[in-house]
Design brief:
With 467 residues, this protein is of the alpha+beta class. It folds into four domains: 8-98, Uridine Diphospho-n-acetylenolpyruvylglucosamine Reductase, domain 2, CATH 3.30.43.10; 102-219, Uridine Diphospho-n-acetylenolpyruvylglucosamine Reductase, domain 3, CATH 3.30.465.10; 223-333, 2-Layer Sandwich (Alpha-Beta Plaits), CATH 3.30.70; 340-425, 2-Layer Sandwich (Alpha-Beta Plaits), CATH 3.30.70.2740. Helices cover 36% and strands 20% of the residues. The strands form four sheets. Strands 15-12-14-13-17-18-16 form a seven-stranded antiparallel beta sheet, sandwiched between helices. Strands 5-6-10-8-9 form a five-stranded antiparallel beta sheet. Strands 1-2-4-3 form a four-stranded mixed beta sheet, with helices on one face. α1 runs antiparallel to α2 (55-68) and α8 packs across α11. It is globular and about 70 Å long. Its cofactor is FAD. Residues 42-220 form the FAD-binding PCMH-type domain. It comes from Anaerostipes hadrus.
Length: 467
């Protein structure tokens, strides 16, 4: 695909649309952070960055870009981990971080309508102040809602509450040709034709630009208690997860962690973890509307874990203990990143009853491929995060060993009936692995959908499945 090279004449058109030079970054004024996302694996500068404040501005820019064949890259907070918001073909980058307003809290319909630049932590705090609950809980709280929707982000509460897709009722979208459309709405049920709203969710900015989202809320659970459960070995810990799932006392979260990752988090945060007696842990959270309700659930699970070989069951029933545990869990990614010179991640997902087999495989893989690998994840929903660490390896050797490790991990996940990504998406970095996992008919269908939305392929090219 041949694109028009962005030039001074194009810049003048953009200035005429935006009418605020401070919201336009050009040439040497473009910050380095706009050339990559959080992981930094892919790097490419846009020709211009536009900080949009409305759907109408985005619509005008998209119309011009469409007519002139200029590539456009949507961007939120840039916290992605697969290069989804990197301007591979340069051109125009539209930053939606200034579109950060909460537009409406509809208590009768249990919905909230927001602009795409609202941060997850801002949304969560706002609805909790009004006694409501937005369950999706991805680890990066400074990510934008638009980005969460674009990758169908999951998080730790998915085992009980589901993922972002389950909470999106309606979207306002600017199409690649500049037209503004609405998909879905406030209705609970909708069997009115193809679900274009659901096509947008997880499409990583390749089909349209999300400019408004109406999200489903739940009443805020009144109480929450966590259990930190040490095991002698990782295998014993992970083998317990299917038993917990079958017990029907569904926790809000089931996380697994190893001592080596906890040590990284302790060093990163400068705080001790509440327990350090063991090599492996399960971290469970239960929520509900009364202590009695929660106790009935966690008591059953605690007994089950002890019968399965747990060394202890530590009940986190104070705010201080709760914060120390979950703050450590939330810091795992940054802590691992701080323990090495560079890294890349694998965000595979397997059926829940295969988690133990996949975790054991990951744990032993460093013996097969001579490279350090650290893992943690959402054991209750099968989404596992493995980080392949560069340490003192040369760049060439790191890339060689990393590619070998990734091939093996994705191959094993596929054997177990798993998929390439559970929540981070595919973006630019994970395309080869997705294409290997899909049959040609599926790729052809995806290509047809892309062409229907974006026949000129100007919106976020080279992402997901595109060459």
């Amino acid at each position: 695909m041949s694109y028009k090279k962005f030039d001074q004449a194009d810049l003048e058109v953009i200035k005429n649309i935006i009418k605020d030079d401070e919201r336009i970054l050009y040439a040497e004024n473009i910050n380095e952070e706009y050339s990559h996302d959080e992981l930094g694996g892919a790097q490419s500068y846009p020709d211009v960055v536009v900080k949009a404040t409305s759907a109408e501005e985005i619509s005008e820019i998209m119309k011009y870009a469409y007519e002139n064949n200029i590539p456009v890259t949507p961007r939120g907070a840039g916290t992605g981990l697969v290069g989804s918001s990197v301007a591979i073909e340069h051109g125009i980058m539209i930053d939606s971080s200034l579109m950060n307003h909460i537009l409406e809290l509809d208590e009768e319909n249990l919905t909230i309508t927001v602009e795409p630049g609202v941060l997850l932590m801002e949304l969560a705090a706002y609805v909790e102040d009004h006694d409501f609950f937005y369950p999706p809980d991805p680890g990066e709280k400074s990510a934008t809602i638009g980005g969460n929707i674009s990758t169908n982000a999951g998080g730790m509460r998915a085992v009980k509450y589901g993922v972002t897709r389950d909470y999106v009722r309606g979207l306002e979208v600017v199409l690649p040709n500049g037209k503004i459309v609405e998909f879905g709405g406030k209705v609970v049920k909708n069997s009115s034709g193809y679900s274009l709203k659901d096509l947008m969710i997880g499409s990583e900015g390749t089909l349209g630009f999300i400019t408004k989202a109406t999200l489903k809320l739940l009443p805020l659970p009144k109480k929450a208690i966590s259990l930190l459960i040490p095991f002698k070995t990782l295998k014993e810990a992970i083998d317990t997860v299917p038993l917990i799932i079958k017990s029907k006392a569904i926790p809000t979260a089931i996380e697994f962690m190893q001592r080596e990752v906890i040590i990284d988090a302790e060093e990163y945060l400068g705080k001790k973890f509440p327990d350090s007696q063991s090599d492996a842990y399960l971290l469970l959270k239960f929520d509900g509307n009364s202590i009695e309700e929660i106790e009935a659930d966690y008591d059953k699970v605690a007994k089950l874990c002890l019968e399965a070989g747990a060394l202890d069951v530590l009940i986190s029933d104070t705010e201080e203990r709760e914060e120390s545990i979950w703050k450590a869990r939330g810091a795992f990614l940054e802590a691992i990143k701080g323990s090495t010179t560079d890294m890349d991640e694998v965000d595979m997902v397997v059926p829940r009853n295969k988690v133990n087999e996949m975790v054991e495989y990951l744990h032993n893989l460093h013996n097969e491929v001579d490279i350090r690998i650290k893992s943690f994840g959402h054991a209750g929903d099968g989404n596992l995060h493995s980080y392949i660490l560069k340490d003192d390896l040369s760049q060439e050797e790191f890339e060689k060993r990393m590619a070998e490790a990734m091939e093996k991990i994705y191959e094993k996940a596929a054997q177990l009936g798993g998929k390439v990504s559970g929540e981070h998406g595919i973006g630019f970095a994970k395309k080869p692995y997705l294409r290997e996992s899909l049959d040609p008919e599926t790729v052809e269908l995806m290509s047809g959908i892309k062409k229907a939305f974006d026949p000129k392929n100007i919106l976020n090219p080279h992402k997901v499945f595109q060459s």
